[in-house]
């Protein structure tokens, strides 16, 4: 329950509360706190929220010291899902922090990992954009260690400030410490604006490189280069699915000078097979296309020389519907696609893990 004394709080605090109520009444997401009821008296306003028995995420972190990578992944996926939902509705939270994430329940899985059911709460500083503006906020607000650089500058910031806060939270979950620290608020703001991210503590030696890369994407000083909440949800570290499994659209492949495409395979994941589904005049064809593949970088260079008239430089081309590779990059030739589909404007490329019979 949240209560506000009208007389003591003042008109500005009451207006913030009214705005919070207005936003909470418009949202419905499994990881956003649910507003059950609002009661008003001449002196007080009471917000009745759903019960979160396990308290604040901050309290659990303080008890544990840090979360495992698997536990952190589960929390960040839930948090990103909630924030992506808000951003789709043009709502910006502006005060994401550990204290504003409540834990409704917790379970221990078969690997002895803690799985928390989190709820984003406290929408007192949240605002809803009007007119579809991407950069409309010009006031400094929030909690210093979670503030994005553009919020500190108080200059035309957008919903990407929430993404920065997700990055700070993720860093703290994994290490138990904020990514940026200083002896005073003024010095802290200077450190944040520089955005020099370090992984010097011993704990980071146990954290996967992919998780550190996600943090670098979340804590980009320039919000234009920062990933969005939706993009975070699609990151391999979150989904636990290799990037190479994803559907990738290539446009106007018939205009490719050398008639091949680069597909980059993560070295951690080996043995894949490939097929393409063509799109002709916007209609999907279910025909699977046989694809030629080169499985070494040396072959890539050889192919380029061949196409430039350099003769056969020793490139080995496997003509097959499925190929195994451990190399980077993998080159997929487009010749077969044109032969079977004419000149498709687009085609959908699929890459899945090889399964032994």
TrEMBL record:
GO cellular component, one term: manchette
Keywords assigned: ATP-binding, Nucleotide-binding
Gene3D superfamilies noted in UniProt: Transferase(Phosphotransferase) domain 1 (1.10.510.10)
Domain Protein kinase: residue ranges: 1-238
GO biological process: manchette assembly
Keyword ATP-binding listed: yes
Single Gene Ontology MF annotation: protein serine/threonine kinase activity
Pfam families in the record: Pkinase (PF00069)
PANTHER family hit by this protein: SERINE/THREONINE-PROTEIN KINASE (PTHR24347)
Protein name: Serine/threonine kinase 33
Annotated organism of origin: Naja naja
Lineage of source species: Eukaryota, Metazoa, Chordata, Craniata, Vertebrata
Gene assigned in the entry: STK33
């Amino acid at each position: 329950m949240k209560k506000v004394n009208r007389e003591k709080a003042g008109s500005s605090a009451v207006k913030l509360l009214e705005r919070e109520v207005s936003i909470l009444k418009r949202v419905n997401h499994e990881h956003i706190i649910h507003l059950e009821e609002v009661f008003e008296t001449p002196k007080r306003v009471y917000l009745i929220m759903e019960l979160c028995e396990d308290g604040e995420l901050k309290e659990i972190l303080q008890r544990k010291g840090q979360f495992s990578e698997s536990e952190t992944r589960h929390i960040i996926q839930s948090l990103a899902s909630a924030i992506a939902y808000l951003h789709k509705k043009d709502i910006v939270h502006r005060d994401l922090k550990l204290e504003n994430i409540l834990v409704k329940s917790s379970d221990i899985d078969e690997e002895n990992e803690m799985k928390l059911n989190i709820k984003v709460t406290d929408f007192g500083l949240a605002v809803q954009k009007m007119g579809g503006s991407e950069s409309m906020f010009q006031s400094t607000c929030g909690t210093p260690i979670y503030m994005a650089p553009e919020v500190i500058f108080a200059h035309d910031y957008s919903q990407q400030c929430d993404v920065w806060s997700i990055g700070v939270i993720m860093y703290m979950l994994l290490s138990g410490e904020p990514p940026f620290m200083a002896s005073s608020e003024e010095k802290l703001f200077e450190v944040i604006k520089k955005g020099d991210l370090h992984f010097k503590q011993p704990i980071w030696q146990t954290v996967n490189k992919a998780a550190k890369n996600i943090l670098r994407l979340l804590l980009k000083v320039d919000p234009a280069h920062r990933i969005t909440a939706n993009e975070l949800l699609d990151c391999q570290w979150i989904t636990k699915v290799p990037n190479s499994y994803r559907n990738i659209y290539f446009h106007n492949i018939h205009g490719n000078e050398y008639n091949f495409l680069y597909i980059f395979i993560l070295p951690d994941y080996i043995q894949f097979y490939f097929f393409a589904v063509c799109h002709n005049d916007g209609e999907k064809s279910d025909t699977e296309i046989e694809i030629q593949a080169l499985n070494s970088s040396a072959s890539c260079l050889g192919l380029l020389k061949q196409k430039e008239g350099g003769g056969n430089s020793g490139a080995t081309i496997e003509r097959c519907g499925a190929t195994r590779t451990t190399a980077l990059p993998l080159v997929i030739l487009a010749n077969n696609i044109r032969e079977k589909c004419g000149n498709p404007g687009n085609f959908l490329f699929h890459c899945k893990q090889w399964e032994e019979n």
